[in-house]
Amino acid sequence: MYQEKIEAIKAAIAKADANTPEELESFRMEFISKKSVVGGLFAEMGKIPNEEKRAFGQLVNGVKQIAEEKFQELIEKVNQANKKSKSADIDLTLPPSNHEIGGIHPLTATRQRIIEIFERIGFNLSEGPEIEDDWHNFTALNFPENHPAREMQDTFFIEKNPDIALRTHTSSVQVRVMENQKPPIRTLSPGRVYRNEAISARAHCIFHQVEGLYVDENVGFADLKNTLYHFAKEMFGKGTKVRFRPSYFPFTEPSAEIDITCMICGGKGCNVCKGTGWVEIGGSGMVDPNVLENCGIDSKKYTGFAFGMGIERIAMLKYQIKDLRLFTENDVRFLKQFRPIL
Ligand code: PHE
User: Fold this and answer.
1) Any residues with Cβ below 6 Å from ligand 1, and which?
2) How much is the pTM?
3) DSSP letter string over 179-241?
4) Is 253 within any annotated ligand binding site?
5) 170 burial class (0-12, 13-18, 19+ CB within 10 angstroms)?
6) How far does the centroid of ligand 1 lie from the alpha carbon of residue 36, in Å?
7) Does the keyword section mention Isomerase (predicted)?
8) Is the pLDDT of residue 9 over 80?
């Protein structure tokens, strides 16, 4: 009878367990609340014969106490478990996780370094549009209309308008600067250029150049030579030599190709310099008087020099990269090598 029932409840309490707040609540509903089995026992008091009421009451109060003690025990247990799992989230003794940080793209780094070198000797920065008109890309630079010199650079024209093209060189920016500024001019124009060429390890249809222009009274070829010599030493190291080879550009006279000693073999000859010990980094020359006049500068009073170099070419030599396509393929194995070392 009721003794057995109470024993069964006691056994159930002893067996009960809770590991989560939800299970704690179930325990409370089952054994503590008014509607629980223990609460139900008190309601039965009325049915118990008077002489047994006292004994029954004692038993019921005993179960109630056992249930409450067990409940406290379980609350404690669940709280402890909670604390442990929270502190496990922040283990201050662990070594820090390796955050991978990005690096600067080798072309950007090269461009920055070139700018830095020329800024220190008084060149400012100038930029121009990549979609250019015939005047700034060709005509003002002394490329006569229908002249074969235009074939030197395979050009992307805009369909239906042969007057507009993607600039083939940053020399278009020197025209814009000279049209808008009075000498003395000392400016550097880095930027993206386009040529309609097949993509290979050595050529791309999109690449970067940096143009330099210096216009003032009495600027001579010696100034050009010394400026580029200074640049080569700063960029590639003290022992670097510079060689000028006669060349032709419509906008400079005289014109010269700029070579530097091959840093891969140190001038001894290798497959990068094709055994010559020299590698080409760009073109240069004294600005043709026609170009100065086209831009509204008095060619009797002023002279100037200009040079243009390939940023990819310089980066390839600096970092010993053999294929120019790597710059634009975004292969992380390649780019990772340029991350700063922490
Ligand atoms: N614009 C020329 C080229 O792209 C390079 C150059 C610039 C040559 C300035 C002479 C002077 O080939």
Assistant:
1) 169, 171, 211, 249, 252, 283-285, 306-308
2) 0.71
3) HH-PSSEEEEEEEEEE------SS--SEEEEEEEEEEETT--HHHHHHHHHHHHHHHH-TT--
4) yes
5) buried
6) 94
7) no
8) yes
